[in-house]
Amino acid sequence: MLKLEEQQFLGEAICNLSDVITKQNRLFTLKLGVSEHNLPNPSKFGELTVQAEESAGSKALMEMVFHCSDLEIKDLLSKSDPFLLISRMSENGTPVPICKTEVRKNDLNPKWKPVIMNLQQVGSKENPLMIECFNFSSNGKHDLVGKIVKSVAELENMYHSGNGENFFVPASNAHDCHSKEVLKSQVYVEKYLENSRHTFIDYISAGCQLNLMVAIDYTASNGNPRLPDSLHYIDPSGRPNAYQRVGN
């Protein structure tokens, strides 16, 4: 571990994050100082330039439309009520849910509304995603119809090729936990679109200003302002009331 007391102090600078991101190019230069160090020649400490960068993943959006064919009937008196659950696979193999579709009632060839994910949720286009199709149950115990494991890059290739991917389920009669049974049911990527969105930092660094207007409710329900239990009470000791504390 680096021992700071054994290093040569070259100067320090303090700024707010807002000072950096409000610059048009997000570059902010500060003069190094010696606020708590009695060092000679303070004018020779130089300058420090700070540059702010946003993660590309915070802006990148991926929009996909999925549809399936020939899903298995899971309900006794009707067709299945399917929905998709999309999860990111963690390093230890545990799925982490990131989004899901709506439920399509009584439909064995469902097409869902667009699913939108950002790259931060996924991690990267090469990370595996588990896409599970469930039959909805009102008691919360949804039946697995089938699943696939594909990366975003592979899902994009499925869209361009127009080919579907067969669902699979864990084999029920196999001793190997990795064995699986491939189903005739297939999932397709009908639409794949990449886009970007402006973030809050984009608006601030481009000069966006926010104005705040506060209105105070003086209705009788707030109590007599002469009594200490009123929200409008002016304490002779100078202690602020509830509205003053919020305003400050």
Structural descriptors:
C2 domain-containing protein, 12% helix, four-stranded antiparallel beta sheet, Copine, extended, 248 residues, mainly beta, calcium-dependent phospholipid binding
Q: Got a strand count?
A: 10
The Rg value, from CA coordinates, equals 29 Å
Taking the alpha carbons of the first and last residues, their distance comes to 43 Å
Main beta sheet, described?
4 strands, antiparallel
Organism: Aegilops tauschii subsp. strangulata
Protein name: C2 domain-containing protein
GO biological process, one term: cellular response to calcium ion
InterPro entries: C2_dom (IPR000008), C2_domain_sf (IPR035892), C2B_Copine (IPR037768), Copine (IPR045052)
Overview of this structure, please?
With 248 residues, the protein is mostly beta strands. It folds into three domains: 11-51, no CATH class; 58-196, C2 domain (Immunoglobulin-like, Sandwich); 213-248, no CATH class. The chain has helices spanning 17-21, 119-122, 152-161, 200-205, 242-247, and strands spanning 27-31, 47-51, 60-69, 82-89, 95-100, 115-118, 128-135, 143-151, 165-170, 180-196. The strands form three sheets. Strands 6-3-10-9 form a four-stranded antiparallel beta sheet. The longest helix is centred in the middle third of the chain and has 10 residues, at 152-161. The mean pLDDT is 86.
